[in-house]
Amino acid sequence: MDATRTIVETVGKLRQRRTAPLVLELDLTEGLSEGPPADPITALLSMRKARLAEVLSGLRRARKDPRVTALIVKIGGNPLGLGMVQELRTAVVKLRAAGKRTVAFAETFGEFGAGTVPYYLASAFERVYLQPSGDVGLTGVALEQRFLRDALAKAGVEYQLGQRHEYKTAANTFTQNHMTDAHRESAGRIAESVTEQVVAGVAEGRGLDPKRVRELIDQGPFIGPEAVEAGLVDGLKYRDEVYAETVDEGAHLLYVSRYAKSALSRRVPHPGAATVALVHGTGMIRLGRSGRSPLGGGGAMGSDTICAALRSARRDEKVKAIVFRVDSPGGSYVASDAIWREVVLARRAGKPVIVSMGDLAASGGYFVSMAADVIVAQPGTLTGSIGVFGGKPVVGELLGKLGVVTESVSEGANAGMFSPSTAFSDEQWERVNAWLDRIYGDFVGKVAQGRGLTEERAHELARGRVWTGADARQAGLADELGGLEEALALARRRAGLPGDAPVRTYPRMHPLERLRPPESSEDKSAALARVRLEAWGPLARMAGQLGLPAYGPLVLPGWWTIR
C-alpha cells in the first residue's frame, strides 16, 4: 500500500507541475558556455554553466508556452562577451513581446568597476532591480593595449615578426611601444561602433532619448539612488523582494536550461526526421583534435574534430542544412584551410551552410567562415582581421645574460632557421616574407571568391583590419545581423524544412570515446554514437509521455557531443 500511495503521490505531483504556472530563472553568475564540451575535463569545469544554445531554445519555447508567466535573470559579475549579450537581449525582447514578464536583478553592475556591458544586457528587461548597496558602472567603452617591446629589449629579447598588413596589430604588442596610426584608427572605430550599439539598446529598453543616454555614460558610474533617479533601474531591492514581487503563489521555479531539456517542454524528434546539423567551433584553431591545452587555458578548435563533424553532417542523408557556430580568434593557417575545405565540400553536396558568429570570429575564425552560403553576425561580433603575421622571438642575448650557452650542430643552411637563439639571416627573412605573402594572397583570394568580391575590393577590406559585425555587414563581409536562433531559422528555410525541424550536433560522441584509438580517419566512433542514440530514441519518447526528464544515456547533450 505504501508503494502504491507513493506512486499515486508522484503522479499527482507530475500532473500538478504540468499545469502549474512556471517562472523561469537564469543565473549568469558563472557566465554561459558557448558550446558543448570537447573533452571530459572541460565538461567537469563547465558543469555549473548553462549552455547558450539551451538557454536560447528554452526562451524560444517559453514564448508560446502558456504556463510560463515570467523570467527572472540574475546578472553577475562574470563578464559575458558582447555578442553573447546581444543574443540574450534579442531573446528577452521577443519574450517581452509575447506578453511574459521579464525581470533583471543584480547585486551590482560593477562593484567599483566598469559595468557597461552587464547593464546593457539588463536594459532589455521590462523591470531592472539593483540591490540597495549596489552600483551601476555605466561608464562607456575602453580598449586598452599594452606594449612590451621596450621591456623585452631590457631583458635582451627581440621579436622578429612580419605582418600583413598595417591593421594586423596583434604583433604590435611585441614590436611597438605605442599605437600606430592604423592601430588607433581601427580601435577607435570599434569603440565608437560598440558605443553606438550600447546607446541605442539602453535608449530603447529604458525609454530614454539616445542623447540622454550618451550624457549618462559620461556621468557614470552611479550609486543606487542616482541610478533610480536617472531612470536606469526601477528600484532598489534585495533578492527576496524581487522574487516576492515576481513569483505568484503556486508558481513553480525552473531554470531555463532545465526547462529546455525537460520532456515537459519539448518533443523528442523521431530518429529518421530531417534535421539541421549544428557544429560548434570554439577557441584557438589548431591542427588535431579539439580540447583543452594540457598547460591550461581555454579550449581549442581542432581541425580533425571540426572536419570530422562537417563530413559526418555532409554524408548524413537526414541532415538537410548545416549551421556552423564560430567563436574563435584564429590560429593555425593550415588547420583553418582544412576546415574551409570541408565547408566548401558541404556546399557542393547541396547542403546550405550558415555560419553563426559568436563574440569573436576573426583571422582564422573568419577564414573558416567565409565560404558559407550566409554569414550571420551580431552587431558587436569582432570579425575580419583578414591578414597574417609570423616570426619568432630572439632570446640569445637574454640567455647570455643568464649564463646559458647554446651550441648547435646542423646540416643544411637553414636547419636552425626557427631557433630562437639567433636572428633570421637576410635570406631567411626573405623566405619568411614570401611565406606571409603567400598566405595573405590565399586568404584574400578566398575572401573574394566566397564573398563575391574583386580581389582589389577584398584587399581593401582586409589588410588585417578588425570590424564589428555591424560594420562588417555594411562592408559585405557578413550578410545578416542576428544570433544562433536566426541562423537556425535561416537554415531551416534554405532547406525547405518546417520551423520546428529538430537540430542535432555532429558528430555525436561521448568525450570518453576519445580515449580509445579511432577505427579510421572517418571517425567511425561518431557514427556508432549516432546509432546508439537512435536506439535510445523510443525510450526517450516514452519518458516524455510519462512526464519524466529525457536525461538518459546518450540524451544529455553536454556530455554526448563533441565539436
How does this model look, in words?
The protein is an alpha/beta fold. It has 2 domains: 191 residues, 2-enoyl-CoA Hydratase, Chain A, domain 1, CATH 3.90.226; 288 residues, 2-enoyl-CoA Hydratase, Chain A, domain 1. Helix content is 42%, strand content 18%. It contains 21 helices and 23 strands. The strands form 6 sheets. Strands 12, 16, 17, 18, 19, 21, 22 and 23 form an 8-stranded mixed β-sheet that branches. The protein has a 6-stranded parallel β-sheet with strand order 10-6-5-4-1-11, sandwiched between helices. Helix 13 runs parallel beside helix 14. The C terminus is likely disordered.
- Count the DSSP helices: 21
Class from helix and strand fractions: alpha/beta
CATH homologous superfamily placement of the largest domain: 2-enoyl-CoA Hydratase, Chain A, domain 1
Q: What value does the Rg take, in angstroms?
A: 26 Å
CATH class bucket of the largest domain: Alpha Beta
Query: Which regions contain 5 or more consecutive residues with pLDDT less than 50?
Result: 523-563
Strand content: 15-25%
CATH architecture of the largest domain: Alpha-Beta Complex
Number of domains in the coordinates? 2
CATH topology of the largest domain: 2-enoyl-CoA Hydratase, Chain A, domain 1
Largest sheet: 8 strands, mixed
Question: Can you give the mean pLDDT?
Answer: 85
Binned, the helix content reads 40-55%
How many beta-strand segments? 23
Overall form: globular
Ends apart, CA distance between termini: 50 Å
